[in-house]
């Protein structure tokens, strides 16, 4: 099949690439662009390790085709800190609350939590749990992740 040209922004940087029509956004981010903060877990849209924001909306990049981001703004965990290196409020909350153990799931959780924070609405605990239900963690038992997310939403 013919390769296709796509143009998008990744963490504010203009990207112009020729891709195969079947290439996933995760493959493009990790293999073509070398941004390895976004993780591959299940590879089939179940675990949320690969969550990135497309136009501010969390998507599972392992099942999201690269051609779909043409003209869009894409953000990964590498884009959360400020240019001066200061971590985002959500990242700070995860560190302060010990919401990270092995860290494999953390980029995905941070992207889902950041999308919640940026939409500006208030969340009950049940709504926080529901909003994070597409992200799996094998280590923490979720309690600290939920508490850290609530703290990050308030700060
Ligand atoms: S790696 Fe994408 S949802 Fe698991
Ligand atoms: S901290 Fe290890 S999978 Fe979540």
Description:
The chain is of the alpha+beta class and 155 residues long. The chain has two domains: 4-79, Roll (Ubiquitin-like (UB roll)), CATH 3.10.20; 89-154, [2Fe-2S]-binding domain (DNA polymerase, domain 1, Orthogonal Bundle), CATH 1.10.150.120. It is 31% helix and 16% strand. The protein contains five helices and five strands. The chain has helices at 25-32, 89-96, 106-118, 125-131, 143-154, and strands at 4-10, 13-19, 51-54, 57-60, 73-75. Strands 2-1-5-3-4 form a five-stranded mixed beta sheet, covered by helices on one side. The N and C termini lie far apart (48 Å). The chain binds FE2/S2 (inorganic) cluster (FES) (2 copies). One FE2/S2 (inorganic) cluster is lined by residues 100-105, 137-140.
Q: Outline of this structure?
A:
This protein is an alpha+beta fold and 155 residues long. The chain has helices at 25-32, 89-96, 106-118, 125-131, 143-154, and strands at 4-10, 13-19, 51-54, 57-60, 73-75. Residues 40-43, 45-50, 60, 62 line the site of one FE2/S2 (inorganic) cluster (FES).
What is the CATH H-level superfamily of the largest domain? Beta-grasp domain
Low-confidence stretches: none
What is the C-alpha radius of gyration, as a whole number of Å?
15 Å
Give the DSSP E fraction (strand runs of 2 or more residues).
Answer: 15-25%
* Overall residue-averaged pLDDT value: 97
Strand order of the largest sheet: 2-1-5-3-4
Total of domains: 2
SSE order in H/E notation?
EEHEEEHHHH
Distance between the termini: 48 Å
Q: Helix tally? A: 5
Give the number of DSSP strands. 5
CATH topology of the largest domain: Ubiquitin-like (UB roll)
